[in-house]
Structures are given as C-alpha cells and as structure tokens.
Amino acid sequence: MKFLDSLAVESWVLWVLGVLVVGCRLIARRMKLGKWSLLAIEDYLMCFALINFTGVVVSINEVAKNGSNYMAPEIAANLTPEDKAQAIFGSKMTFVLEIFTLTATWTVKACLLFLYGRLTEGTSIRMRWGVRAVAIYCAITYVLVTFMFAFYWCSPTYEYWRVPVRIMQCATYYNHMIFATACNISSDIMLLLIPIPITIKIRLPMKRKIGLCCVFGLGIFNILAAVLNRYYNFSNPNSYVFLYWYVAEVGVAMFVGNLPLCWPVIRLALGSKGDSSNPSYPNTSYPNSSARRKTQTRHPLASTASMWAKLDDEDGRTDGSHNQGSEIELVNQKMPDLVKQPYHTAAEAVTLAHLAYLHALIAWASLHLFHIIPTCSSPAADIMTIPAHDVEIVVEKGSSGLAASPSLDENISTIEPVEASSFLKTVNRRIERFAGLETRGIDRVPPEERQPASSAADLQVALLWFSANLSLNNLATGLFGPMVFNLGFLDSALLAVFGTILGACSTAYMATWGPISGNRTMVAATLWIFDVAVTDVRSLLNVVLMVGYATIDCIIGGQVLSAVSGGNMNILVGIIVVAIVTWIIAVFGMSIFHKYERYAWIPQVIVLSVLIGTAGPYFNASAKPTVTGSTLAANRLSFFTLCFYVPNSWAAAASDFYVYYPERTSRLKTFLLTLTGLTFSFTLVYLIAIGLATGLVNNTAWQEANDISTGGLIVAGFDPLHGFGRFCSVIVALGVIANSTPSIYSASLGCQVLGRYGKVVPRWIWSSILSLIALVLAMAGRENLLVIFQNFVALMGYWVMLMICIVGLEHVFFRGRKTLDWALWEDRSYLPVGYAAFASFIIGWVGAILGMSQVWYVGPISEAASLADLGMWLGCGFAIVVFPPLRYLELKIIKR
C-alpha cells in the first residue's frame, strides 16, 4: 500500500503541475494574440497532449494496483479466478498506458514542430526543409512504433493480456521498449538541433547565449527521463519502480513543451504590471507614463526593463518615434559582423530575412531575449523595428521601404525567398573554434593544407592500425577456429597469421592512395573506376560495414563490463558507455582521433600481456582438429577466409586517415607501415583468442563463463588476479573504443558521399546519427554476438574485395602511371562511366553467392565443397576474368 500511495501522490502532483503549465501557456498565448480564436494548432495539440497525460496518470495507478501478466508460469497456473481477472485487467491497462504514453510524447514533439515550421517560413530552404525532415521522421516513427507495438511485437494483439502468458515478449515489451526508446531519443536530439545552432549565431554576451541554449536545451531533461525509465524497466522488470519514471517522462515532456511560453504569466504573477514591462500584455490600470512605472520583474535573459516598453505596443506594432531604432548584432559565416549599424530602409533583403527568422525564434523562447541597443538616427530616415512576437515582414520589389505588418494573420512567406548561409556550417565553425572539431568532410585536402613530413607522423601510420585493432571484437574472431570450425591450435594459429597478412596487404594497398590524392577512400575509388551514381551503392555498403563493426564493439564491450560486475550491471549499461565515448571521439574528428589512437595501445598491450600470463597455463597448444578429411580442408579454408576478411574490411576506409599526409609521401612506406600495424595487432589478438578457445575443453569455469557471453570468457581469463583482474577486464573492454571510433568516423564520411544531399549534412551530425544507430543495433542483438559476427563479417568482406580487385586491375592494366586530377571527383565528364566496373561488380557478386557458406544460405558450389566458404574467392575470380575485356570495350566505345 505504501508504494501505491506514493505513486498516486507523485503522479497526481505531476498531473496538477502539468495542468498548471498548460494553463499558463494558454493564458500567455491569449495575452499575446488578444483572442482565443487566434490560438494556433499547436495550442490545441497541447490540450490533446494533456488529455493523454491524464490517461497516463489514471492507467499507471491501475497498473500498480492490479499488476499484469508478467509472472512465472507456475504462479499463473495457481491463480484464483478473481486474481486471474485482476491480472488480465492490469495487463489491458498496461497496454493502454503504453498507447497514452506514446501519443502524449509524440504530440508534444508535434507542437514544437508546428511552431518551428511557422518560424522558419520565409527563411532559407535548408532551414525549412530541416524542420520538414524532422517532422516527417517524427510522424513515421510514431506510426511505426505504435503499429509495431500493437500488431507486430506481440501477435495477435490479445496476447498482451493473456494469463498465463504464452509469448514472454507480450509481458515484458522488451523489443518494443528498445525500438521505441531509440526512436524517441533520436527525434528529441533532432528537435534540439533545430533552434540551438541559431542561438549560437547571435552576437550576444556569452552569459546571455548560454541562457538561451539552456531554454532551448530543456529537451535534454526529457531524454534523461526516457533513459532512466528504460533503465529501471530493464534492470529490474519484477519491480514497479519504473512506473515512477513512466509518469515522470511524460510529465517532463509536458513541462519542456510549455515552460518557455509561460514567461509572460510568470512575470505578471511575480509583480510585473502590464505595459510597464511589455506593452504586448497591456494593463490599463497603469498609465504609460514612465514616471509611474514600478520596479519590473525581469526575465533572467532579457535586456533592461526600460527597453521593453520601447519595442512593442499592445498590437505588436512599434510605438517608438521615427528617430528611434534598434541595433541587433549578428554574425555571418562569411564576415565577422553581418550588421553593425541600425537597420534602415535600405537594408538588404537577405539581412531582413535572417533577422526576422532569428528574432522570431528567440522571441518564441522567451519573448524578449535579444540584446537590443537603442540607437538614434536622422529624423528623415525610416527606421525598421521588429515586434517581439510573430514577425510579419513584407518586401515589395522596387520598394525603398521595409515595413512591419500590423496583421498577425499575414504570412511571413511573402518575403522573397533568400538562400541564407547554412547554420549547420556556422555551428561547425563555432564548435571548431571552441573545441577543435574537424569540419572538413569529403572535400579534398589540397597539398598546401597538409601537415609537414616527420618521423612522428610516419610512426603514427603504424600506431593507428596497431591501436585500433587490439580490441575484443578481433579477439572474438580468433575463437572461431577451435570453437566453430573444430580446428586444432597449430592449424588455427597458422591460418590466422597468414590470413591476417594477406588481408592486411589489400588494406595497405588502398591506404597508399590517401596521401597522393588527399581524398577519402570512396572518393578516390570514384576517380578510378566508378561513376558517381554507382559510388552511392559502394558508400552505402561501407556505411553498413563500419556501423556493423561499431555494433559488435559495443556488444562485446558491454558483455565484459557486465561480467566484471558479476552480472549486477546490465549489459545495456556497458553498451551505452562504449557508444557514448565512441561518439564523442568520432564527432571531434581527426585531431583527437589520432591523439587517442597514439596512446590507446599502451594499456591494451599491458593488460593483454597480463592475460597471457594468467590464462596461458590453461592454453592447450597440443589441441588437434576434431574433424577430418574434406570437412577439415573446408573448415581450414573457411577460417583462413574469415581471418582474411577482418583486416581486409578496413580497405574500404584505409585512405580516410591519411588525407592530411604530404602528397609526396612514399607509397611503399605507407604500405609497409600499414601492413606492420595491422599484422602485429591482429596476430597478437588472434593467438590469444585461439589459446582461450583451446583451453575451454579442460576448464569448467571458462565453459560456464563462455555460456553466459564471450565477454565473460575474457573476464574468466583474469580471474586468478581477483580485483586487479577485474580492473584489467575493464581496460580491455574500453579498448573496443579505439576500434569503433574509426568505424563511425569513416561511416560518417561514407554518408557524405551519398549524393549531394548527404554532403550538405556536416560530418559531426552523421557521426551522431550513426553512433545512435550502432547503439540501438547493439542493444537489440546483444544476445547473439557470434552469429552476428560470423555472418556479417563474411558477407561484407565479399564486396570490399571485389572493389579492391577492380581498382587494382584499373590501376595496373589501364591507368599505369597516368596522372589523375584528384579534385575532379564530382565532374561526371572527367570520371569513367563505370559500366565495366559495375557489371564486373555484379558478376562478382553472382560468384560470391554461388560459393558463400552462411547460416542463412549455402551456395551450390559451397555445398559441393563440404560447406567451405568460397564466396570471396569465386567473386574475385569472376570479377578478374570479366573486368579487363569489359573495360577495354568501354574505352574503345566511350573513350573514358
């Protein structure tokens, strides 16, 4: 009863506060607009959100009172008819609770999007389409999340309230929770990215600017509430503590969506009187005489109180004289100051549109947040001032004057559309200045902007690859030899070493084009063989490959951190930790990335050496294969190919990390240093993994740990050291960050190659989106690491090797020593048409499919070869045979 009473009190208190904040919003809007009939659609939507919030509070108390069908089967079998009916009713209310929660949360998002949509009318196309894109994303995710919850995750729907439950998913909502949380948080992040970049552009004191960002950044609290809700839901599903966070999540959303619009009412409640503070909210009991004005209650971010009365009259028009102007200092991306004088009638349209948008957006947040400096000008000059609420500006062609429309119903889109500077690029420059973020995307790095040659830079080539691949995901690859392919220690070791060397050669070859071209890998390959349209296919495959590796890193890192805690920490927490740190490094770019990789290998080498010392005595170096004949030969080839795939897969990103190296960097030196870094790192990790796998047979503790997770096996290897061993396990787990960071970094560049729209989006935004995707995928697939790894790595390895073969053939047989103009990668008239390359790529895939051997498909040739994975070898063979004649015909007919 104590829990029920506590939940009831807290939930209804939050509901009352929600009603108050919605009421304040509506009153503030009425004060602003003058009539209830002028309320906008988002005001009505907020009332609808309040209705859903009421449903959340009512249903959540019913769930706490009646329980649900989440119980052990033996308990459900012994329920009395009354208890069973109560559990069924509670389960139905749980279903209703989830619908109310989803609808309330996404309705608040819709309110903000309608507001952003109005405020961006008449501004740059990119701003308007940014809002529309987020709106489309929110609409799709709401429909998708709701539909999958009602009809997909638990089908038929009535299984949600069946007692006893037959499908555990219908009681835990597990998959739905993960999917809904990912969609909810990602859309919240997108909503934050709309207004905050605009705030950064305004020339204001830093304290004022930080305050504005705090107003717009209230959505962070909503994200935090959502994360805590899911954490308590997953960490202890038998407890109803998560119900507190259910109602808190929706309550925070209501507060975040309404508080910024409530300031006028709060100001009046604190003692501010009518037009003394803002004539837009008149109070006739106080005359306009400045002598009778009382002390004002100021908004913490506002200008001085005396300024407010000079800006607006009660209808939103300027009541100042013609010689009273205002100066609003802004910063343009091309000039240090867009304006440093009063806005006169001769102001340019681009300045007016930019000003109108910025003023309206900030006015929405806090109604009077601009730093406005009163200035005086000639009485003969017409001064343009802008009201502090909905901005209505009309620009007439040939007109010498600019006027603020007194009508609130006129559309701001009457401004002639002007392409304003990208606010995302401005944010990039600001963040670069404050945090050293790399703003360059896939544009070529010209020779004059490269770093000077040095021995330290050369050493960094090897250290980059050595550091990035001393990670647990590669250790998981080595386990396959003895555990999956039933090979002995010697067989596995030899195949792993030689597979690594051969796979590293392909990556080292592709890496040599980075310094010469100054282009990223996908861009350089475009100049060699592919048309721009075909490049999109390769880039998409590369994005999938790199995000897949980052996902595997998150999973195995989370497994180790969970195992270190003895299972007390949910694996989801470890996954989130790895994903967040990876995101931070990938967002800041090449500079911090190289610095991190320069030193990340040191603790990894130390703890892996410790692991060899503690687990080495249990390695079975005399282990023999448990299969014979053709099966043994097939398994040897499959494991060799798997060990080849992993270092080879870096070839799709190899040039990305060398674009800042001098143009005259020796290709041989780049090749050998890359080969060295890859070979030593993979060999060390593979051999440790093979030793652990052979030791499983005679070590019961290792077997039990491995049954829990692959990460548990790593922790078991450190067990003899007790506390220090757990510390070493944490270091090993965090080592996956060095591997996942270049994956996310390269994938973000691959997204920019996906057409001209992909290039417009800054790299740091792509890094953020891809980090979130990797996090969601890791959360969903955390129980099936080895299956994911075996199928994913092999499948992705096919296309990478096909690309390398085609590039190599073009280089050796058709280009030779011909010089390329690396800056013309987007010039279709200069690029090869790519017909021969694309046809060879497709034919190579046909060969790969015929020879592939995966859990979900076995090709006919592989089946005839005792299930050996021949996909890559057949694919490369097909491509090598068909590309030269096709390319020869292409050159003869098309001449390029």
TrEMBL record:
Residues 275-301 are annotated as: Disordered. The chain crosses the membrane at residues 12-28, 40-60, 99-117, 129-153, 173-198, 210-232, 244-266, 493-511, 541-565, 571-593, 600-619, 639-659, 671-693, 724-748, 760-780, 792-814, 835-858, 870-889. One of its GO terms (biological process) is nucleobase transport. Residues 276-290 have a biased composition (Low complexity). The keyword Phosphoprotein applies. Residues 25-267 form the Rhodopsin domain. It is a multi-pass membrane protein. GO terms for molecular function: transmembrane transporter activity. It is found in: Membrane. Signal peptide: none annotated. One of its GO terms (cellular component) is fungal-type vacuole membrane. Belongs to the purine-cytosine permease (2.A.39) family. This is TPN1 Pyridoxine transporter. It comes from Fusarium albosuccineum. The lineage of its organism: Eukaryota, Fungi, Dikarya, Ascomycota, Pezizomycotina.
